[in-house]
Amino acid sequence: TSKLTQHRPGLIIEPGSPSKAGKTRAAFYLRTTPLTRASRRVCAQANKMKHRARKPHEAIDLKALRAECMPLLSGVDRVRRLSSFKPRNRAPMSEICRRLGQTNQAVQKWLVLNKE
After folding, report:
1. pTM above 0.85, yes or no
2. Which value, to the nearest 10 degrees, does the dihedral of the CA atoms of residues 34, 40, 43, 48 take?
3. Which of 5, 15, 24, 103 is the most buried (most CB within 10 A)?
4. Helix (H) / strand (E) containing 24
């Protein structure tokens, strides 16, 4: 195979295929349980997620990790609160443009999609 296809992990080349385009694998995502998400937030120091991601060959002692995290996750309400997602409050784009120094606040004609 060519060097281009060696660096694309999602691409499968069919043997004997005249086309070098190949076909892509189906995408997937790993859905974690609410208890796992809450334990990541509570035991961030014990988990050391970045350290473990850099060294995937090292074994993780799950019994010790669970023994440390479970007392901190005492109630169902605490687990729900720690595992919930909160949307970020972002400033409107016009506010950001004004802070960056744009002085002309008029609506540009080329940006308007619907003419009303």
Report:
1. no
2. 160
3. 5
4. strand 23-24
